[in-house]
# Entry
Amino acid sequence: MTAETSQTLDRGLKVLKLLADTDHGLTVTELSNKLGVNRTVVYRLLATLEQHALVRRDLGGRARVGLGVLRLGRQVHPLVREAALPALRSLAEDIGATAHLTLVDGSEALAVAVVEPTWTDYHVAYRAGFRHPLDRGAAGRAILSARRRPMTDPGYTLTHGELEAGASGAAAPLLGVTGVEGSVGVVMLADAVPERVGPRVVDAAREVAEALR
# Structure
């Protein structure tokens, strides 16, 4: 800790991170042990976080992340979208296909930013807000590939006709961005994705990841 930081706020944020990493919640004693502070401090931290709906406690006394974090989370998408747009524009213009940034939203893939090329005669109409299962389409499959191989670069994923007849997709996962799980990709009207597209998508995903760090 430095003179410019708040110890109490630091501990409160650590509580939220610890709770976010468990599906079953944590007791006051467990949080006390993990934080290395006494139970009284933990009670005060939880009471403050509960007032802001960032933490809730069940009937058994286990603390869990509260619904208040959803209100904060809604503001993340616009920030992520803004950071990703330059790389997406470059990708769309270079490939001549619709480029997109897709993030995980529950059990689905959600397109949060879409850029269409300006010079093509036709391209796939793909809109921000479009949802689909994670196990269908290049964007979702790229995210799942990163989950299976989190310590390595999973490269890119290619699909054809899984979300729209006649359309092919290529996507690469975002890697090394804390708190963000997603992918960058393109969708095009083609029977197969040209060979150069996959590596180009990987480069774009790397650019977006760097902009988000």
Q: What stands out?
A: Residues 76-95 form the longest helix (20 residues). The beta strands are 55-57, 63-65, 98-105, 108-115, 131-133, 157-160, 167-173, 182-189. The chain has a mean pLDDT of 91. The helical segments are 7-20, 28-35, 39-51, 68-73, 76-95, 138-148, 197-212.
